[in-house]
Design a protein that fits this description.
The protein is an all-beta fold and about 400 residues long. The chain has one helix spanning about 100-105, and strands at about 5, 15-20, 25, 35, 35-45, 45-50, 55, 65-75, 80-85, 90, 95, 115-125, 135-140, 145-150, 165-175, 180, 185-190, 195-200, 205-210, 220, 230, 240, 245-250, 255-260, 265-270, 285-295, 300-310, 315-320, 325-330, 335-340, 350, 360-365, 370, 375-380, 385-390. Helices cover about 0% and strands about 50% of the residues. The radius of gyration is 26 Å and the shape is globular.
Amino acid sequence: MKKILSIIAAGALAVLAVSCTKDDKATFSPSDVTAPVLGTFTVADNVVVNYTPAVFSLDFNTEMPTYHTLGLVSVNGEACNVTLSAAKDSGTSLTLKGKAMTEALSLRGFSIGDAVTVDVVVRASIQDPSKGVTNGYVDSEEKASFAWTLSEDKPGGDPYEGWEPSTWGVTGSIASAGLNWDKDIAMVTDGTWHVARGVVLTPSDQFKFRKDAAWTDNFGAGPDITEEPYAVTLDVELPAGAGGKNLTVAEEGTYDLFINPDAKIYKVIVTGSNVPQDPYADFTENSPWSVIGSIASTGNSWNADSAMVTDGTWHVCRNLELATSDQFKFRKDADWGTNFGAGPEITEEPYVVTLGVELPAGPGGKNFAVPEDGTYDLLLKPDAAVYKIILSGEDPQL
């Protein structure tokens, strides 16, 4: 039976609308709507859910669009009702960024590091949930159940940021996904490569790539491979064979599975191995050095300091938003007794730094400025009297 519900709520959040009260029943007759059907889903840094759209058969809905999003309906077995309106909809697939899921759970009292089990449904409405309260909706009967750990954004960002839902999928005999060649794991694409993210595989599993959940267009090992299943070599682009032999992995692990159907090549990597490592992972100590200045984004007007951390040699203030009109310097112990600016031969003030280059720092030197508005990492090596300014996210090459 289709689950047809209505929400009575008095407000909306920018990312989601929340109701944890008992649901009020049927605003639609079951004959007026066919519920959406939840299909395959993947969970890695983001949540990607494939679905078949709902169909509303209301006299007044002939010209109105139908909106689909995800609904969070239970956490650790406790029922709730959270409309995740931040989910991006392709028409047959919904993608929810991990940050939005973590924010939704944070609003329910969970903290970074907590591991929870959640149930998610596909939710359809004739009202746009991103605009606020949804007065009526219909949920898929099926639920996507999975574990989620609340975490901060990963250094280096999401390697698949901006990738779109793909018509390609991964099928096979995959125990972790409950597949026995009968369903597909969703993929996303940048227009060239298509990837299934975070797939847990063992050497006893087998898989292939196929398009539109059908066997008309499919790829396995090949085209000259006769061994089945064929154990892939990780991190290498390999030739894909149309209708080729089944693939497997040599060791149990969590993998990202890639196919480039136009070039007829595929690749398998360990999940996360293509995420840039945090260049400041060894910066574990609080530094006595800090950044002081006239910095609009922090409200700093030479009267407060932005903290730095250190690896014992270099000191860094990360992700500081700076405008070209801002000026700043480095100082120690939040005091002017020891401070560095541009120099020591610089007379220009403010001195517009050259990005990505180690430059001499002058004790008591001229104020710094940046060449363009942006978010920066500010680095100082006080023992050598050098500094470096880079755009956040770039390799400091220390």
